[in-house]
Design a protein that fits this description.
The complex is a heterodimer of chains A (592) and B (309). Helix content of chain A is 53%, strand content 12%. By secondary structure, chain A is of the alpha/beta class. In chain A, helix 14 links the parallel strand 7 and strand 8. In chain B, 31% of the residues lie in helices and 28% in strands. Chain B is globular and about 70 Å long. Classes of the chains: A alpha/beta (592), B alpha/beta (309).
């Protein structure tokens, strides 16, 4: 034990005296952190600097350093002392870790203070996972040092390992933009597991156990590399290694070859990459400046909305600080209106515009597409009726995990609330009558043309008569509109509901049509907006949705113009946010 | 094996593939003895020493160091010996004191580092980084490191190679001091004076064999060559030789006869005769040199080669 302690203490002292260590472990990553923090957002930049640190400490800190010490003849003196290479290898691991910990704490502090990154929830898991990463990568560095015969060889092998591992880690360049085969290659690289584990723990509050594959592969690598380096350790450059011994490096990569093979079969990591990309986008801070804000209850004529970590952090009425001062991305929104994400209180996901998918598998796929189409149309929440619960669960799990993006299912498969609530269903009445009259104008609305697949529309045009019937006793539009006004007079809460999915009502945009029909019936635009936001949320038993205020879920729509005066403005969507993520709307619907 | 034998080597061989570095050597070093392994580069000295230190396996023969077999009981041997390598290099930014403490932690027995630093005149430099030390200081530190475990045997592999004369003298004093403390020392060198001055016994190696061993005096006496007496005078010497000069001892005069060189087996007697003669002639004696045969002469005699390359 005595040699271990003495060697560790000496190595720590010597490391502290090296300026290059301070530079590469602290200053260099710090420059990245400050330089890229605003562009990349706190969590991705955190993952980037930690990946740089861990790969650097492994390959350059441990690998090159050990080769240099041997080449310089420093290790030779230890050869005549009664020690094994054990203390030298262990000291390298411990030193790497001791140097790493202050960097980790420092980066978290900076990101927390400057970029408002919340303190990592599973900080213990994060700490253990990253420590494991340091040890595993240092041991990989040691094995490189063990097998090379010169500094030149060391440089070549280190670069060959370092560059691909850095570029394909997912921390530098998003894996999602790479061709499939490169994404597959990445599944064999330890750095990818490091990044995924780290981001999973940070963004999805995962534990060590949930990352057991990465943990197991890192532990196996650390142990294998350690014992192989112990075996191959050389004290002097004159002790040359047979070329075949270099193949031991491959043995050290074995754990990740196994992990990679499993991933190629399972593809779990590739799914996780998608999820993490969304999660990362959710952690970007936004300031929607100088907009008219409808909070779900009232209108603020000019104000700014600060979105952080997926929630509305604050609403500034009147003037607000600049986006830069708040470390947020700014969106200039003068002349635009921010609304809570719209809610369609009743939709039928089991079919689309009256067409039923063939199999159950198609049902869940169609439901997923439908939810994406809602989101595209600024509808962030729906009340689903008539979808088998098991399919609803299946679909929901993919949305909750963040693997896919779409409107939230606010209430599942329960009959619409009665009593103080009234579902409006005006579009349904209109569709029923128009179908009887052979009028297909509902399919011609702008947003419908944007979201509905061309094939669906063609099929509807040719065979609208064969669609599922609307059922008997559907009131005419005029009757329905009168009835709504009567309910309003009684003080009944109105929940905007389209019953999209039924004949001629395409999933997604029909809520905007419903709003127009409501105003046409005699509601003020403000009342109509409430019916599609706060009131709908109340009726669905989801009071956290449909409102914008401090602490509310940051799901909202930014539209051009003023829907409080001109209700059709709701269709002129500029931006959609879901849980704080600025949604790429174009990616939600099939390209035509 | 008798306990007073520190190192025993018999029929030791070492091959590197087809190259025979050591071709069957035998020697013993007694406890407290300073033993020199002398020979040109590539003679097999370092290989032999590394086998004794437990750094290399041998190809054949028997080796005992302090009663242990260095190949099988490597750690036991390493724990009880001190080694000063031909070229010791430490990390640039380790201090003298830290390096001693570090190495001290590796051994079961450890010397008082303060006393060691003082004895090796490194006390003032104890906080200095290795890279700031002079060549002599570095070498003293290397010797200090070799003594950090109060070793039973110290191996000094060419401890003065590459050092200037002044530093070399310093190191010689140190080694002499060490041997006064009854430490067994095995010294390899290709400096003749070093071996003559420091070693009680010497083995001369060439091409993997020990060609001769014994005390430096014994070795010199084996050489048929005679001592040379040189006399320098202010005035020219007369023709002829001193009266009663033995015919078998040659005398050469320089042109001008101001200097003579006599070869003799009995230098002391020759000097007396010659000085008497020079004085008698009134030539004015200005200097006398007596040159005994050196180990170099022994080596040249035995191998036909010079030691330094």
């Amino acid at each position: 034990m005595k040699p271990y302690i003495a060697y560790i203490r000496t190595t720590l002292r010597l490391t502290g005296r090296e300026r290059i260590v301070i530079f590469f472990n602290y200053l260099f990553p710090l420059a990245f952190l400050i330089g890229l923090g605003e562009i990349m957002g706190p969590v991705p930049v955190f993952a980037l600097v930690l990946t740089l640190n861990i790969l650097g400490t492994g390959f350059f800190g441990a690998g090159m350093r050990a080769t240099m010490d041997r080449e310089a003849g420093i290790l030779r003196r230890f050869k005549v002392a009664p020690i094994t290479p054990g203390p030298i290898l262990v000291a390298s691991m411990v030193t790497g870790w001791v140097v790493f910990v202050p960097a980790l704490i420092g980066f978290i502090a900076i990101l927390n203070l400057r970029y408002h990154m919340p303190l990592p929830p599973n900080i213990f898991s994060l700490f253990v996972f990253l420590s494991l990463g340091v040890v595993a990568f240092r041991s990989m560095g040691m094995i490189v040092a063990s097998v090379v015969n010169s500094m030149q060889e060391s440089q070549i092998i280190v670069q060959l390992l370092y560059m691909p591992m850095l570029l394909l880690s997912g921390a530098t360049i998003p894996l999602t933009i790479m061709p499939d085969w490169l994404q597959t290659v990445a599944q064999f690289l330890p750095s990818n597991y490091l990044n995924l584990g780290m981001q999973g723990i940070l963004l999805r509050r995962e534990s060590l156990a949930q990352n057991w594959q990465a943990v197991a592969a890192l532990v196996a690598t650390a142990l294998l590399c350690f014992f192989v380096s112990l075996k191959l350790f050389r004290w002097e450059k004159e002790d040359r290694l047979k070329p075949s011994a270099k193949l031991w490096v491959l043995a050290a990569l074995l754990p990740f070859v196994i992990a990679g093979a499993w991933q190629v079969y399972d593809r779990g990591n590739l799914r996780k990459v998608q999820i993490l990309a969304h999660q990362a986008r959710r952690n970007v801070s936004w300031l929607v400046r100088d907009a008219r804000i409808f909070t779900g209850d009232r209108v603020i004529e000019r104000g700014s909305l600060l979105i952080r970590n997926g929630v509305v952090e604050r609403i500034y009425e009147g003037d607000s600080p600049s986006a830069g001062d708040l470390n947020a991305e700014g969106i200039a929104a003068a002349g635009k209106t921010a609304l809570p994400g719209l809610i369609d209180a009743e939709v039928v996901l089991a079919m689309n515009a009256g067409l039923r998918p063939g199999s159950m598998k198609d049902v869940s796929a169609a439901a997923e597409n439908a939810l994406a189409a809602y989101l595209y149309s600024g509808v962030t929440g729906i009340g689903s009726i008539g979808l088998p619960p098991q399919i609803e669960k299946l679909v929901e799990s993919r949305f909750v995990s963040g693997e896919k993006l779409g409107a939230m299912v606010l209430r599942s498969a329960v009959a619409p609330a009665q009593g103080p609530c009234r579902m409006t269903e005006l579009s349904f009445s209109q569709a029923s009558a128009e179908r009887a009259a052979g009028d297909l104008s509902l399919l011609k609305e702008t947003l419908v043309e944007e979201v509905a697949p061309r094939a669906l529309l063609t099929r509807l045009e040719s065979s609208y008569r064969d669609l599922e019937p609307h059922g008997a006793g559907v009131p005419s539009l005029e009757t329905a509109q009168r009835s709504i006004m009567a309910a309003r007079a009684h003080g009944t809460k109105l929940a905007a509901a389209t019953l999209s999915g039924t004949a001629l009502l395409v999933h997604g945009p029909m809520l905007h049509h419903e709003l127009r029909l409501l105003v046409q019936a005699g509601l003020t635009p403000l009342e109509a907006l409430r019916a599609a936001t706060s009131d709908a949320a109340d009726c669905l038993g989801a009071p956290r949705a449909g409102r914008l205020g401090p602490g509310a879920d940051a799901s909202l729509v930014l539209v051009e113009g003023n829907p409080v005066e001109e209700i059709s403005s709701t269709e002129r969507i500029v931006e959609v946010f879901l849980h704080g993520e600025n949604v790429h709307r174009g990616a939600l619907v099939e390209k035509k | 094996m008798a306990p007073e034998v520190a190192i025993a080597v018999s029929a030791l061989t070492k091959n590197y593939g087809k190259v025979e570095a050591v071709r069957g050597i035998d020697f013993e070093v007694a406890r407290g003895e300073v033993f020199g392994l002398l020979g040109p580069n590539g003679a097999g000295k370092t290989t032999t020493v590394e086998i004794l230190e437990g750094l290399r396996p041998r190809s054949g023969g028997e080796v005992r160091v302090l009663g242990f077999d260095p190949e099988d009981e490597t750690m036991a041997v390493k724990d009880r010996i001190g080694v000063c390598l031909q070229a010791t290099r430490l990390s640039d930014k380790i201090t003298v004191e830290e390096s001693l403490q570090l190495f001290a932690a590796f051994y079961t027995r450890s010397a008082d580092t303060t006393a060691l630093l003082k004895r090796l005149q490194l006390w003032d430099k104890r906080k200095a980084y290795y890279t700031t030390l002079s060549g002599g200081q570095k070498q003293r530190l290397a010797i200090a490191l070799a003594m950090v475990n109060e070793p039973d045997i110290v191996f000094l592999d060419e401890p003065t190679t590459g050092l200037d004369a002044q530093v070399r003298r310093e190191i010689h004093t140190l080694i002499a001091e060490l041997s006064d403390r009854n430490t067994t020392i095995l010294l390899t060198t290709h400096y003749i004076e070093e071996a003559e001055q420091l070693c009680q016994r010497v083995a001369i190696m060439d091409e993997g064999r020990i060609i001769v061993q014994g005390t430096p005096r014994e070795l010199q006496e084996r050489v048929i060559g005679k001592s040379r007496v040189e006399i320098l005078c202010q005035n020219a010497l007369p023709e002829g030789l001193p009266p009663g000069w033995p015919a078998e001892d040659a005398v050469h005069f320089t042109p001008g006869r101001c200097q003579l060189v006599a070869e003799t087996e009995y230098p002391a007697r020759a000097v007396v005769e010659l000085v008497k003669w020079v004085d008698g002639c009134g030539a004015g004696l200005s200097d006398i040199h007596i040159k005994r045969p050196t180990l170099e002469d022994v080596f040249i005699e035995l191998t036909g080669k010079t030691l330094r390359d």
